[in-house]
Amino acid sequence: MIIKEGFARISVPETHNRKGPGTRSAGFYNNEQVINRDLTILVLSKLRPKNYLDGFGATGVRAIRVAAELGIESSISEINPISVRKIEENLAMNNVTASVHKEPFQSVVSKGLYDFIDIDPYGSAVPYLDVALSSVKNGGYLGITATDLSVLTGSVPSKTRRRYGAFIANDAHRHEAGIRLMLADVVRRAASMDRYITPIISFWHGHFYRIIVRVRNGSMKADRSLDLVSTVNFNKMYSNYYEDIEQGPVWKGDLEDSSIITEALALRPGSVSESSVNFASKIIDENASLMFFEMTDAARSMGMSLPRVNDLIEELVKTGFSAYRTHFSTTGIKFSGTWQQFTEAFVSALRKT
Ligand SMILES: C[S@@+](CC[C@H](N)C(=O)[O-])C[C@H]1O[C@@H](n2cnc3c(N)ncnc32)[C@H](O)[C@@H]1O
Q1: Of 46, 84, 171, 327, which has the highest C-beta tally within 10 A?
Q2: Does the beta carbon of 62 sit less than 6 angstroms from any atom of ligand 1?
Q3: 287 C-alpha to ligand 1 centroid (Å)
Q4: Stretch 180-192: mean pLDDT
Q5: Residue 207 sits in which domain range?
Q6: What's the confidence (pLDDT) of residue 240?
Q7: Are residues 318 and 177 in the same domain?
Q8: Measured from the CB, is residue 124 less than 6 Å from ligand 1?
Q9: Is the predicted pLDDT of residue 314 greater than 70, yes or no?
Q10: Which domain-ending residue is among 288, 319, 342?
């Protein structure tokens, strides 16, 4: 069947995935990843790399959109011969050209020089990170999609330890901790190659994490980036309500470059859906604090009910610190003050609610 995404028309299997991570099949297409591709187009409209490699083509939808909607020279690698035929069919249907490599990503990426490399495999991106990080141009970009969220969020601790050398408590903060763990892993791998990364955008949506980072050469800056990789302990950061346990290592630096996202939002390519634009405009304040403050934890620690989120934000702003909603939790707040200020504002907000 033919579906429309952005300005592209894509032939996808009748059985394509409408919900969840989906089952692996030739010409794999997942409707739930439209937001991932939309935000990639949005950010690329600002970054304007010279060329783009869609490392895991499937239907080729990513590269086709990048070529058709932004006019950026694109390449695709894909190992499944049936998917390769789909990609060629889709390129022709959209009247765009891209170099199609019927080879594994690992060999394609190490032969060419790409400004933007997009990694979107089934499951974990870990097996592909080193070759991508060492191959991308100095000053280029890596887009990484991960769907191994149960591992990144610590729901199977032995696997989190094996794959990422980390511990993550599978609690209300797990998605911010999980995406920061993913970033920490990328930072450490880049540093081992005397390279360092700067996050452009990082977000969680349903069953996946998506990050886009800039990669540059520099051993001193690599050292500085490693200084921002360490553990977090909510007992020390917030209050005795939390167990005294070190989580991580996680990336403690910025999750995004909010000025790039704001400029991309101003450019807003017409092919990016309104819901994706709304989502992007909601994630521009995630740098306001290292981790968000969780209202349900504050409520439980004081034996109180929940105030309205907007009432609490109003009270928090009165402290002179910044306070914003976070996309990581509907009851989470990015707040640059202390736990004590948070709980005091919480009590005041509850009086209003
Ligand atoms: C999750 S799908 C990609 C989805 C696609 N990027 C999208 O946005 O719709 C993963 C694809 O990578 C292909 N693949 C798996 N291992 C690969 C490798 N080493 N090199 C290139 N393609 C690979 C699979 O055949 C599959 O089509």
Answers
A1: 84
A2: yes
A3: 32
A4: 98
A5: 2-288
A6: 97
A7: no
A8: no
A9: yes
A10: 288
